[in-house]
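Attaching the record inline, Q. Sequence:
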Amino acid sequence: MSLYLITQQRKVFNVDGDRNIIGEVFADGKFFSYSLEDEFRFDGVKVYGKTAIPAIEYDVLVNQSNHFKREMVLLYNMPDLSVQHEGIRFDGIRVHGGNNSKDTYGCVLVAANTDGLKIWGTQEKELTALVKSKIAEGFRVKWRIEMKPFNSSLNNVMV
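Structure, as predicted:
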């Protein structure tokens, strides 16, 4: 089975106000969207619904979300479809639309635009369709999160 890699690069760590993380998402090496997550806690402490998932590699599938009542991308690394790393557990980590950390609840948000503080112009449907098509083509889809320094090319227009 061939691998299809989606890479999320965390680039802007906001420390005032919303305390979120802005990044860029690349599908098979090509820019796809911007991302936004809750803050990353370097001390390893998880605050329920307000903490970004660890920067590691995840398996990806598309399934029905009971909460959102639609098919969505799910990130996981355990057989029970949860995320566990270094003793910390997250459940139901979806990739969906939203604008700021109040919309994430631990999930990854994807959108076409950013100003470095928030994102807008959801790319959820496009991402879900992409992942579904790659799985249907026989690919194993992975999502890798990387910590990257600020990139001055990050702007509020989709590339």
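The mean pLDDT is 90. Residues 3-147 form one domain.

More tomorrow.
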